[in-house]
Amino acid sequence: MIHLAYLLPLLPLVGGSVLAVGGRRLGEPLAGWLGTGTVLGSFVITCIEFAALLGRSGPGGRSVVQVLWSWIPVGGLQVHVTFLVDPLSMTMALFVTGISALIHLYSIGYMHGDPDFPKFFTYLNLFVASMLLLVLGGNMLITFVGWEGVGACSYWLISFWFQRDSAASAGKKAFIYNRVGDVGFLLAMFLVFEKTGSLDYRVVFAHLHAFGPASATAVCLLLFLAAAGKSAQIPLFPWLADAMEGPTPVSALIHAATMVTAGVYLMCRFNPMLALSHDAQLVVASVGAATAFVAATIGATQHDIKKVLAYSTVSQLGYMFLAVGTGAYQAAIFLMVAHAFYKGLLFLGAGSVIHAMDDEQDLLRMGNLRRYLKLTSATFAVAWLAIAGIPPLSGFWAKGDVLDNAFAFNKALWAVGLVTAALTAYYLSRLMAMAFFGDERWRQAFPTPAGVAAASAGDAGAGTGHGTPGTATHGAGHGVGHSGEPHEGPWVMGLPLVVLSVLALLGGALNLPWHPSWDPLGWLTPVFGTRLFDAHLSSSTQWVLGVVDTVMALIGLGIALPLWTRDVQRPRLEPAFLRRAWLIDTAIDTTVSRPGTLLARFAATVLDVRIIDGAVNGTARLTGMLGSGLRRAQTGFVRQYALGIVLGMVALLAYMASRVWM
Amino acid sequence: MGPTTTFPYLTTLVLLPAGAAVACAVMPRSMGERAQRRAVLAVGTLAMVAALALAVTIAVEFRVGDGGYQMQSVHQWMPQLGVSWHLGVDGISLFLLLMAAVLFPLALLGATVRQKSRSYVVWLLVLEAACMGSFVSLDLILFFVFFELTLVPVYFIIVGWGSGRRAYAAVKFFLYTFLGSAFLLVGIVAVAVIHDQQTGHLTFDLVALQSTHLGLASQILLFLAFTAAFAVKAPIFPFHTWSPDAYSSSPTGGAVILAAVMAKLGTYGVIRFDLTLFPRAVVDLAPVLLTLGVIGILYGAIVACAQRDLKRLVAYSSLAHIGFIVLGTFALSTEAVTGGVLQMVNHGLVTAALFLLIGWIWDRRRTWRTDELRGLQRPAPILAAMFTVVMMASIGLPGLNGFVGEFLVLAGTFLTHRWWAVVATTGVVLAAVYLLWAFQRVFHHAPGPEDEHTRDLGWRETAVMVPLVGLIIFLGVYPKPVLDRITPTVTALVHHVDVATGRVQPLVANGGVAAAASTAATAATGGTRAGTAASAPTAACRHHGQSAWVDGRRVVCHVAVTTSTRRLP
Predict the structure, then answer these.
(1) Helices of type H across B502-527
(2) Any CB–CB contact under 8 A between B22 and chain A?
(3) A352-391 confidence digits (pLDDT tens)
(4) Residues A287, A317: contact at Cβ < 8 Å?
(5) Which of residues 209-268 of B touch A (CB under 8 A)?
(6) ipTM of the shown complex
(7) Which pairs count as long-range contacts for A22-25, CB under 8 Å and 24+ apart, including other chains?
(8) CA A343, CA A334: separation in Å to the nearest integer?
(9) Looking at the complex, does the CB of residue B481 fall below 8 Å from at least one CB of chain A?
(10) For the whole model, what pTM was predicted?
């Protein structure tokens, strides 16, 4: 059944193409159902493939390559369109298609009434196709096709409401930041090709002896640059917060559950290479830990519900890279899957809130929503406890795995991770308290659209950076309007919440020692080998670490929940430095963007026009002057040039002749 | 001299548009303005479509795996001067022919002119004949004649149907390229004279001149003379300043041909003549030209960022893309040169599409300034969608054609001139910056009052765009048929340079996995038997496609079963 692998990206690709051409004709609900259907089809096929792969035995038997056609054959460079079906790619494909199907379904409700409803599903389907190419690619170049494809779809979806300048700019920013990372990916490919003569994963990893320590480190760090762009790590993370300008299902799918984890996947795929370079591992782990901490501090100070979640995603991705750097690839994948469940759920819950509040994203204008949005708050609470790391929810196990490995690898990194764990519990409890507990502040904030507009205009200068709520085209058929109280969305939005909350609740079971034979993630072992540090930890140490994690989570939760339920105006806890994301955006702006713009303007107006073209025109003018001086002897330009040609020819001929004869 | 084919495909390809031009020129004035316009358009379209059909036939008849000249036709022309009518096509010129044959009818149909249609069509037909002739000439004088002949129609098209400072732009274009050509002519005559000195046989035939012995100093001088003409035509930095003026003053059809087809005469000339005739100079001066290419990539992109005029923006983006072609050509590895040739075709298709789209924006709004256009995506979604695809191809999104060429160029350059490739790779970021910037300005935002009623593409414009977009996607997904025909010629050409100079391109470029493995093995044993390793991998690489998959052993997975579980007792 492995030969069905090509259908995985093909189905959504066909769906996207059909929607691109005839989506407008299909109209509102139908386009959405078609989009959902193709992704659901991919999910079903992934399940079949998964079962087929389980049916094969032996470590080598569970790695199958499907070759479709020869793509770029030039001399020694032979690149085929190939899919690698192995435990890692199937794990990724399974959760990517599953969550994508749920979020497609959710979008049918969320995007209801949008004039570009079919276009939304076009992009969403193309995104799923690209993501599947990324994870299934049998060589670096196919992975790169998917890598760029998801970047392009992300660009289109972030700037989906392009009438808003902020949305259009955010999409562009995301693409360009990713492009910076892509330079690393390209250079890594060139180096790998130079060393091994191939880009195929299996061939490359079979020729690891061709890499010296320096070149292995170089490849790993170049790939990490790519991963840092895609997965929003220091210093390339500012785009992810801006990406929240996109519709909320997009944030859930692309900027939380799937695309941003592509960097982690890439590093996991290159684990044999990473194992050759301890330096690269240390860099990856350190950057990961630092990002986890920095993003958590930023997330603790944001007022826009989606920005809190965005920085939370950056922070969690940092944890994943910490795991990758410590060699705990299974822990990274475990956290990736668990994170997809609970972060997807958080975003969909936030979408449900935003939808119910008529496109309001400011936490200061929410409060006590648990009385009105029962299903949303219940499922949101599951996700909150899961990400905070409260046992026995999935986040506890997943994050615990990462921290245990970090503990064995490097105590300093572990300490950073532990503090971040407390911060994680803190900022999500803060969000929970501001949105679902406390006073019903939206009753005062809601009165008139004009008032809302005025208030948001006033806030824009405050630098909190929350998105402009509402647009002319969007929100027409949304939520409650201004009259009634917030209420839940339709069932298509409710069902994904329920499914994801069950997964977030029980996802930890994926990796629990129920029985010696129960070892679902253990099947990744053939891909990753056993370069794991926590294998050396005694069981009592593991117990102690588990208790420490829980205590830290409870501390964060215990501080934030009562504090932010009582009052939401606490500027002392929200220093501007943190609110403005450690000023990294500003720093990049002053050091790169502005000098770049000046350079471009200088090059265009002075260098090109005055100097280079000036030299050309100056020569022409000189010739003209010379010509008018010679006009007594010569008449007209044509003869002059003819004369020039002849004289030049004679001179060169004379030179040549002299060389031949002498 | 190879055997001549039974049917003179190439001669017909050159004479067909020329004949049609004559037919249009002598069409009687008595038939009335409108009837004449229609008849001229019909004849022009018919001739161009016939030329396209002929070019497709040539591509079908082309023998895959043969790196030499095919379908040659050789006729005496001026025997006492050693000039002959020698045409031939190989992997390098084949797809340039096809590209030109595709673009001419699209340029004619996609951008019709309102007045003086007859002379416009005549000039376009003359231009097509001259371009085709340049791509297939294997006689230096014949090439020069066609190469120069292209100037005349373009000059008249800019002056007659252009806009803005068209007289200035046309004269500048004409004089600048003409000056370059003067050096070329001197060079051509010098090569022939030296050949005559050595053999006593005066000829301008490229195949014969290939065997001329030239000292390094003469090679360098002649290389500079030839390259002066090609560098202006392409244009290569810093000889590019005529191009923004000429492109922005041309009518749409002229800009399409000028940027998409004629620019390739320059880069084609470098590959065809410089690499064949002056290999030692090419190898010696490669760092200089590579540097100019890299500067072109970065400088073109940076200046494009500051442009407020869409046409000038595309002109500078062209400079950047030509930089990639130059880089590939002078990197002199099989991948890089193949990528360079492919990139010529890619750049032609993408630039033509961009100029057509920009021309249609002009038709609707009478401006191409980015600060006067806003929110066009809302009223004109098809236009925006087409622009998006073409823009992404220009940025180098994999799956579209631009990526394949760029990747080959950069990967191939990395093998021979690593640091040039590293710097050039950063160009991919800048390409995204200026194009997305322009796209946001023109298509995003809510439309202003004048933009609100911008007409979307009509069926005719869509019909012109569809083949271009189709080719852009096809070449991105399945470039194999094209690469299979380019590679043998390029392999032979690089081999020619290697033999002439004693330089050897890295084994991996032709040998792939097997070569890399043997290199690693010899490095490991301390032996340096590069000579023997060179032949083995070449043989192995023929079967590489299959064998690599079968042989791809898995040493990745080690033993052991322990997992990273948090195991609570």
Answers:
(1) 507-525
(2) no
(3) 999 888 888 888 888 888 888 889 999 999 999 999 988 8
(4) no
(5) 215, 217-218, 221, 225, 238, 240-242
(6) 0.89
(7) A23/A118, A23/A119, A23/A121, A23/A122, A24/A118
(8) 14
(9) no
(10) 0.89
